[in-house]
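Entry type: protein chain
Record version: 2
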Amino acid sequence: MKYAATAALLFAAVLFPAALGAQTAQRATPLEARVKSRDLSFCYIDDKTFTADLDIWLELKNKSKEPLIIGRFVPGAKGRVAVSAAAARDGRFLDDHAGFGGLPADESKPTFGDQPDERFVVLPPGKTYRTTVLYSVYLRYASGPPVPGTLPPGRYAVQLEIGLWPLPPVADEEMTALAKRWEGAGRLFTGPVTTNPVSFRVLESTRARADRCSWHDIVGQEKKIGVRW
């Protein structure tokens, strides 16, 4: 496909550090994740397929009694698609679809100081952090043949699982040492967190355009975000 390289880069950013996944499994998530759609555009891939690019507001509320250290930018999102928000809440998801979300990962080896820097946010108890995340779903045109991994036009809902570590994965030992080093500022938390479903609709008459590809606007650029205390 035309944007295979970009998609591969974004898929690579979805990987979560193994140590953090194990940590999350042992403890209930301290963050409440809420999302709502901000914009929807359609990106041309070829004459048979296109993507629905969802620009989504993400709000993360600290439900715990301690400050949380989270990534300032959302590096990866995995999504599951259902035919409706109700179906998603019931756990009835579609199997045959592909999607990708997040931002390209910085390929350099990260280094850290004694305190969280501008790549992180220290979120006080009871406060909310707001940012945005992009997620794209592969679709096919209503008049075209079936294409594996794509969905036909229609009404859908996507539920996201979002990682909050803003950098490439690091070794388990380094992650444990970093959490210990920063514990005076708060608890290092990287997720993942699961959101409520977001509904979207694709009309049969939809025709995607190459100049409406949201991913092209953010690759290699920092996204503008806002913090709401």
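Comment: Residues 1-26, 216-229 have pLDDT under 50 and may be disordered.
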